[in-house]
């Protein structure tokens, strides 16, 4: 269990580029968060829990989808920790876990039309392919 | 041929932990000139130094190599040892095998190899060393203090107390600095003016102290004991010696809409003004940016009402040149600008203020005569939110704020909160903190009293944003311990803005060739053991120009700086550094290259008569170094195209011998 979380933790830190050790526990991210009351776990808790490896509750929490990605916490964090990027990374990990292998490369040509932007394909692969 | 003794220090395990000291002393024993080589646990100890003295006597040593810590640490120690043993102190070389070797290497083999190489280089140099005798220079027995806040005032008073003349240069029209703007001081709550203004009067009345107010230092030349300083005295358009400070001019001046900087722009003053009632010198100053007479020649009211006839619209800036033996920097601090902190709405609402503005709002001499009224509508605020660490403790890469803790904010915020609750018990006071830092005598007790006796609400968390709405300020903040987001309707928000060194510090440091850190705080010669001296000889540090500090700490540092100045000025002669440049007049072609690169102005030229080989005489232009001014930096030796310049103690031949020994 510990090892699995360590792997997940490293992956989250790598994909987000966040260093939670820079956090000085001031709580300004949660103070500034407009979606605070909608969230079971708040921005400062994301930083704290990922740092301590307590990631499972985050993966299963609705909080992931309540974050507006407004980046207010990133803008105002005095330590440059960027909590929203960490929330995004956890969200991505949850989506990948749930939506793994829902999209195969072979399925793509049939879906293509001229209006689909390249970015949408990349996003779809990120979300649904493993 | 020299007879060299090598002494390898273990420095406990500092060196011996990663360097095989026995192997080093064995290897160096076979170097040319070495007749004795040993190692010992602590070479700097009394026993270690005696070991050196005994070896000098026993082996008739003429040179010494100590493989130990940085020469900055103990070169002086071992030079004294050599002198006591009867050897010229400049026959000692230090091989730094600690900071540049054992501390940076983890592997014993690499560390030992490098230590041996560094030792060989030192031996090679000592083989070419010659005895040097330092010259002497006189000391001008007068000190200059730059900055007239509490740091500068205390330093000047202490120096004058020892009998030496002191000049204070203050860029504002009055001395007093930030402390004059404060209301009460923590943790004893004495009134700042009550304890500061008597000191300001002492300064004014002390016949050893001269005050150059409304003045700035514009040029510094020379060196320790012999500084030549140019002071620019700005025209204040009032004759200082005639003005009685009666204030009639300030009352009659028709231009009354000038933002009053003493009250941080929260009220207005007249174009001719005296900053505050207890100003020293108590002399009026005309602000040329607002005075109608100076701007377009129409008005002249102040001149008409001045009974003493002190107004002089034709006054010009004046430059004063003076000699000093020592310079104390006491340039102080300012709160940082809140412009980049939009989330706190500082620029949107008058009721979001900084802590220094809060001081003025509660000061009896302030814009509200000491009544706590909010600036927008002059109503009594019922809910006040204090925000700590605004711009302090930020990430180094952040676009705004400072990386350091500003140190004084926790205490003054506790003071503000406590005083507010004391005077206005109907007020709810919230303090948002990240950590409460109160290390200081009676400091934590003070903070606890604010919480326990005065009922201030301390909340662990930060304010995220402040939104002005109607006549309220909507404060959104987090309460980390309750894991809640709070919404408070506040009447007044007070920001504990980080503090930064005064903007005048950086150009001053350049003039003084004194070093600074990345935050523009002056660097001390040693962070623990020489905290009030700059690495530049003769330059001393007092107060917040060296780092954030409160009043008790500033006053102690001011006294310490004064005692260092007194120690310097008490000397009649200073022993110079014999390691200075000198020019070989036979090789010098008078090209002026060295003069241009010399940062200290130590090089001049003279025409000298030479007997030529064909028995004629020729007059040639040659470089001459003033050894009292030369600091031995070596720029000229590198720049000299004909190889005529050389540095005593660091001759080109000695450096090449070191390099050869390392590369062999």
Indicate the topology.
The complex is a heterodimer of chains A (130) and B (664).
Chain A: H1 2-16, H2 28-32, H3 43-52, H4 56-59, H5 63-66, H6 72-76, H7 83-99, H8 108-111, H9 118-128
Helix pairs in contact in A: 1-7, 3-7
Chain B: E1 4-9, H1 13-16, H2 21-28, E2 34-40, H3 46-59, E3 63-68, H4 71-84, E4 92-96, H5 98-102, H6 108-126, E5 136-138, E6 143-146, H7 150-161, E7 166-169, E8 184-185, E9 190-191, H8 192-205, E10 209-212, E11 215-223, E12 226-233, H9 248-252, E13 258-259, E14 268-269, E15 272-273, E16 285-286, H10 292-296, H11 301-305, E17 318-324, E18 326-329, E19 333-335, E20 352-354, H12 355-362, E21 383-390, H13 409-423, E22 428-433, H14 443-452, E23 457-460, E24 463-469, E25 472-479, E26 484-490, E27 492-497, E28 499-501, H15 505-512, E29 539-541, H16 551-569, E30 573-575, E31 581-583, H17 593-597, E32 603-611, E33 617-625, H18 635-639, E34 645-647, H19 652-663
Parallel strand pairs in B: 1-2, 1-3, 3-4, 6-7, 6-18, 7-10, 18-29, 20-27, 21-22, 21-27, 22-23
Antiparallel strand pairs in B: 5-30, 8-9, 11-12, 12-17, 13-14, 15-16, 19-28, 24-25, 25-26, 31-34, 32-33
Helix pairs in contact in B: 2-6, 3-4, 6-19, 7-8, 7-16, 13-14
Could you list some keywords that capture this structure?
heterodimer; A: 130 residues; Fumarate Reductase Iron-sulfur Protein, Chain B, domain 2; 0% strand; B: 664 residues; alpha/beta; Rossmann fold; FAD/NAD(P)-binding domain; 5 domains; 5-stranded parallel beta sheet; 19 helices; 28% helix; 25% strand
How many beta strands in the DSSP annotation of chain B?
34
Q: CATH class of the largest domain in chain A, anyone?
A: Mainly Alpha
Give the helix proportion of chain B (percent range). Answer: 25-40%
For the biggest β-sheet of chain B, the strand order reads: 10-7-6-18-29
- Helix content, binned percent of chain A: 55-70%
Please report the number of helical segments of chain A.
9
Number of strands of chain A: 0
* Euclidean distance between termini CA atoms of chain B: 21 Å
Overall 3D shape of chain B = globular
CATH class division of the largest domain in chain B: Alpha Beta
Taken in chain order, the helices and strands of chain A follow as HHHHHHHHH
CATH topology tier name of the largest domain in chain A = Fumarate Reductase Iron-sulfur Protein, Chain B, domain 2
Per CATH, what is the topology of the largest domain in chain B?
FAD/NAD(P)-binding domain
Q: Average pLDDT of chain B, to the nearest integer?
A: 95
Biggest pleated-sheet summary of chain B? 5 strands, parallel
Number of helical segments with 4 or more residues of chain B:
19
> What is the end-to-end distance of chain A?
22 Å
Overall mean pLDDT of chain A stands at 87
What is the level-2 CATH architecture name of the largest domain in chain A? Orthogonal Bundle
CATH evolutionary superfamily of the largest domain in chain B: FAD/NAD(P)-binding domain
């Amino acid at each position: 269990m510990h090892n699995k979380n360590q792997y997940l933790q490293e992956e989250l830190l790598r994909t987000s580029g966040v260093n939670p050790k820079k956090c000085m526990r001031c709580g300004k991210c949660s103070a500034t968060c407009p979606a605070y009351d909608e969230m079971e776990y708040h921005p400062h808790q994301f930083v704290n829990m990922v740092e301590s490896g307590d990631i499972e509750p985050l993966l299963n929490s609705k909080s992931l989808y309540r974050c507006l990605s407004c980046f207010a916490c990133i803008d105002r964090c005095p330590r440059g920790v960027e909590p929203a990027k960490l929330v995004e990374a956890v969200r991505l990990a949850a989506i990948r876990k749930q939506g793994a292998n829902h999209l195969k490369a072979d399925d793509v040509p049939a879906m293509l039309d001229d209006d689909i932007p390249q970015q949408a394909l990349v996003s779809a692969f990120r979300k649904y392919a493993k | 041929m020299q007879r060299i003794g090598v002494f390898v220090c273990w420095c406990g395990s500092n060196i011996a932990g990663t360097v095989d000291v026995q192997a080093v002393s064995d290897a160096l024993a076979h170097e040319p000139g070495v007749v004795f080589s040993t190692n010992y646990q602590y070479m700097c100890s009394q026993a270690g130094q005696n070991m050196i003295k005994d070896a000098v006597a026993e082996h008739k040593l003429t040179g010494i190599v100590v493989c130990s810590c940085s020469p900055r640490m103990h070169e002086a120690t071992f030079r004294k040892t050599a002198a006591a043993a009867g050897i010229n102190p400049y026959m000692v070389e230090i091989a730094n095998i600690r900071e540049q070797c054992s501390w940076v290497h983890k592997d014993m083999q690499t560390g030992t190899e490098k230590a041996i190489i560094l030792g060989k280089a030192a031996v090679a140099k000592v083989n070419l060393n010659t005895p040097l005798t330092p010259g002497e220079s006189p000391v001008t027995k007068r000190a200059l203090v730059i900055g007239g806040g509490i740091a500068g005032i205390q330093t000047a008073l202490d120096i004058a107390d020892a009998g030496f003349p002191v000049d204070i240069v203050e860029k504002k029209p009055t001395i007093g600095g930030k402390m004059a703007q404060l209301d009460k001081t923590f943790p004893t709550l004495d009134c700042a003016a009550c304890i500061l203004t008597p000191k300001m009067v002492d300064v004014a009345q002390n016949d050893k102290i001269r005050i150059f107010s409304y003045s700035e230092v514009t040029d510094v030349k020379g060196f320790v004991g012999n500084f030549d300083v140019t002071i620019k005295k700005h025209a204040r358009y009032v004759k200082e010696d005639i003005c009685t400070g009666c204030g009639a001019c300030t009352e009659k001046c028709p231009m009354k809409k000038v933002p009053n900087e003493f009250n941080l722009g929260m009220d207005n003053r007249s174009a001719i003004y005296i900053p505050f009632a207890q100003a020293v010198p108590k002399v009026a100053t005309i602000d040329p940016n607002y005075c109608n007479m100076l701007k377009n020649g129409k008005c002249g009211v102040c001149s008409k009402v001045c009974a003493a006839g002190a107004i002089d619209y034709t006054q010009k800036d004046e430059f004063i040149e003076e000699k000093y033996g020592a310079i104390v920097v006491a340039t102080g601090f300012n709160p940082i600008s809140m412009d980049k902190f939009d989330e706190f709405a500082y620029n949107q609402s008058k009721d979001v203020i900084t802590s220094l503005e809060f001081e003025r709002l509660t000061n009896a001499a302030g814009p509200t005569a000491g009544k706590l009224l909010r600036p927008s509508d002059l109503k009594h605020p019922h809910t006040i939110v204090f925000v700590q660490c605004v711009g302090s403790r930020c990430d180094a890469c952040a676009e705004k704020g400072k990386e350091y803790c500003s140190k004084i904010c926790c205490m003054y915020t506790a003071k503000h909160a406590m005083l507010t609750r004391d005077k206005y018990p109907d007020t709810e006071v919230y303090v948002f903190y990240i950590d409460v830092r109160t290390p200081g005598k009676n400091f934590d007790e003070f903070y606890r009293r604010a919480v326990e006796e005065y009922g201030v609400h301390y909340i662990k968390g930060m304010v995220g944003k402040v939104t002005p709405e109607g006549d309220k300020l909507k404060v959104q903040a987090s309460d980390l311990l309750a894991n809640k987001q709070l919404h408070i309707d506040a009447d007044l928000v007070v920001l504990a803005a980080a503090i930064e060194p005064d903007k005048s510090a950086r150009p001053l440091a350049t003039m003084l060739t004194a070093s600074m850190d990345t935050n523009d705080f002056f660097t001390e010669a040693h962070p623990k053991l020489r905290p009030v001296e700059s690495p530049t000889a003769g330059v001393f540090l007092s107060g917040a120009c060296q780092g954030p500090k409160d009043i008790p700490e500033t006053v102690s540092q001011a006294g310490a700086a004064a005692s260092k100045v007194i120690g310097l000025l008490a000397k009649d002669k200073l022993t110079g550094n014999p390691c200075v440049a000198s020019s070989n007049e036979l090789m010098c072609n008078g090209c002026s290259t060295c003069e241009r690169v010399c940062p200290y102005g130590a090089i001049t030229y003279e025409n000298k008569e030479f007997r030529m080989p064909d028995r004629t005489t020729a007059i040639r232009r040659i470089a001459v170094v003033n050894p009292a001014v030369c600091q031995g930096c070596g720029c000229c030796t590198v720049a000299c195209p004909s190889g005529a310049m050389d540095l005593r103690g660091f001759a080109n031949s000695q450096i090449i011998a070191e390099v050869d020994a390392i590369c062999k």
